[in-house]
Amino acid sequence: MSSLPPESHPPALGPIPANTRAVDAPKVDLPADKELVLKVVPMPKDCNANGDIFGGWVMAQVDIAGSILAARYVRGRMATVAVNQFVFKQPVRVGDILSFVGGVMRIGNTSITIDVQVYAERYDTQGQYIKVTEAALTYVAIDAQGRPRPIPRETRPNAASGNAE
Ligand SMILES: CC(C)(COP(=O)(O)OP(=O)(O)OC[C@H]1O[C@@H](n2cnc3c(N)ncnc32)[C@H](O)[C@@H]1OP(=O)(O)O)[C@@H](O)C(=O)NCCC(=O)NCCS
User: Fold this and answer.
1) CA dihedral for 7, 12, 13, 16, sign (positive or negative)
2) Pick from 155, 36, 3, 14: which is nearest to 95 by CA?
3) What percentage of the chain has pLDDT greater than the value 70?
4) Is 111 a pocket residue for ligand 1 (Cβ < 6 Å)?
5) What is the pLDDT averaged over residues 121-145?
6) Do 83 and 56 form a contact (C-beta atoms < 8 A)?
7) Mean per-residue pLDDT, 84-99
8) Whose alpha carbon is nearest atom 45 of ligand 1?
9) Among candidate residues 61, 47, 146, 67, the one with its CA nearest the CA of residue 112
10) Is 99 in the pocket of ligand 1 (CB under 6 A)?
11) Which positions fall inside the HotDog ACOT-type domain (predicted)?
């Protein structure tokens, strides 16, 4: 038997009370210059005791989304070395459809920095996006011993022009 009071249990999937929605958040389009890398819907198991989605759960998804883009350039093992910025702009609710879009900010010698933006569509107003989170993460290409290794020249965006940066 749970010792938690009933009101602290995550809510069942269903309509969100109007007074808990970010109704005043500006509706925006997904940025055309970013790539959609991940879509996911948080479930009741991803909630904290207040019924909101754990910030840590969102951070994990952002790390996965960023790593998908980074992997295209790193080509092999890598590690997250830094989360340079993380802003939770609006709460995320159970049943929101989250779109993770991203782009490359910088490619260094062994590291790559990716910006990830997260947009929510409320389940009952699909097509209207609210920006809920933005972050910048740096990944380091590592070798079998876990030491930094250069990011391959051939995967760099302007490799064809012969310029590595
Ligand atoms: C990632 C790791 C191998 C890097 O080793 P390191 O000895 O710190 O490497 P360096 O100092 O040579 O830096 C490597 C690159 O990371 C970048 N970097 C290091 N610290 C950074 C930071 N705080 N922010 C941004 N970039 C950073 C460096 O600028 C360098 O990039 P460049 O080669 O493109 O110029 C090591 O720190 C590590 O294993 N960390 C743990 C990773 C991990 O477990 N992540 C998951 C945590 S849950």
Assistant:
1) negative
2) 14
3) 81
4) yes
5) 93
6) no
7) 92
8) 80
9) 67
10) no
11) 32-145
Residue nearest to atom 1 of ligand 1 (CA): 81
- Domain assignment present for residue 143? The answer is yes
In a domain, 7, yes or no: no
* CA-CA-CA-CA torsion sign (25, 29, 30, 34): negative
Burial status of residue 153 (CB atoms within 10 A of its CB: 0-12, 13-18, 19 or more) = exposed
56 located within any domain: yes
Residue pLDDT, tens place only, 39-85: 999 999 999 888 889 999 999 999 999 999 999 999 999 999 999 98
pLDDT digits (tens, 9 = 90+) for 1-37: 444 444 444 455 455 554 455 545 788 999 999 999 9
Q: How large is the greatest C-alpha to C-alpha distance in the chain, in angstroms? A: 65
The answer to whether position 3 is within a domain reads: no
Which numbered atom of ligand 1 lies nearest the CA of 112?
A: 34
Give how many domains the chain has, as a whole number. Answer: 1
At 125 the pLDDT is 81
DSSP 8-state class, residue 94: T
Q: Which amino acid is at 73?
A: Y
Instruction: Report the C-alpha gap between 165 and 158 in whole angstroms.
Output: 7
Q: Where in the sequence is the domain holding 76, given as residue range(s)? A: 26-160
CATH number at residue 92: 3.10.129.10
